[in-house]
Amino acid sequence: MSAAAPLAGIRILEVGVMLAGPYATMLLADLGAEVIKIEPPGGEISRQVSDSYFASLNRNKKSVVLDLRSETGRQRLGELVASSHALLVNMKPSAIKKLGLTYASLRQFNERIVCVALTGFGLDGGDDPAFDYVIQAATGVAMMTGDPAGPPTLPGYSSADNSTGLTAALGLLAQIVSGRGGQVDVSLRDVMLSQLNYRASAYLNDGAPPLRYPMGAHSYYVPAQLFLTADGYLALFITHDAFWRSFCAEAGIDGFPTMAERAAKRDEVLAVVSAALATDTATGWEARLRPLGIPVSAVRTLPEALEATPEVVVTAGDFRLVRSPIRIDGYEPDYRPAPGVDEHGGAVRPAAHSS
């Protein structure tokens, strides 16, 4: 029998659109929180993207339609706030304030409500559009990604949205644990700048702007990048001298024994390593180096990765999805399908607030 859900008894309201907000609350729903997705008449806009898109971000939730522009909708929201622990909203700051979705507006219904505003530039940062790709461009992520001889590059998934969703979920839980209500302010811009930690620190403290290296090479560790093999690409990430010695023994090369020397002679090291790796395939090197404890992987497509890890795929209704990344001993989420529009509108009632 599965253990009790870690967040059982926690009720969270979501006024979220597209990705960042819904992803945050889905992670909390997977952990057992009762997440009530408040949708406008007609449903949240991401329902128009595709059924699989919506399913990937909204499983395990309930749906209640409220017109928050109406007096009736605002009154109903207040009733739900009175019996909830938190409200997470991702919209433009002006819309959040106009609709009264802040702690200052909602504390009249519940002094201990936690209100999380997930925006592009902060609750007081203005309404400039802040989609994922825009934030990656604005914070330097795109400029430091890609081949140095090519244009700036964006990753193939919504890294800013997903990272901000994770951060918002953390902030929400932290404030609930504190036992105090209040406003939590999380922005895509701040999250992405925070994730540039050592890159930002190198510039702020040493005056070293980030450089782009071929094959996505690491700025400190050598060799730590992608390499072309006899068939396919290989990611090799050697961070210390013990890894290097093991690699050299298997690859039949020598020299450059210290991390400092490898960094100082980057081009020479990469030439030697590239020549060695060209003698076998990516999967061949993976099979040879992994048993030695060396961090290495053949570059795979997403379909190949999913086929190699069937244990991460779960079923929620008619959809196969990637399971929650949070695994808790003894607890297994019950993966329920994403709700239909207003599916729980007549069933969700104010409940006794659990402290």
From TrEMBL:
Biased composition (Basic and acidic residues): 333-346
SUPFAM superfamilies registered for this protein in UniProt: CoA-transferase family III (CaiB/BaiF) (SSF89796)
Keywords linked to the UniProt accession: Transferase
Pfam families per record: CoA_transf_3
Highest taxon of source: Bacteria
Residues covered by region (Disordered): 333-355
InterPro entries listed in its UniProt record: CoA-transferase_III_domain, CoA-Trfase_fam_III, CoA-Trfase_III_dom3_sf, CoA-Trfase_III_dom_1_sf
A GO molecular-function descriptor: CoA-transferase activity
Protein name per its UniProtKB record: CoA-transferase
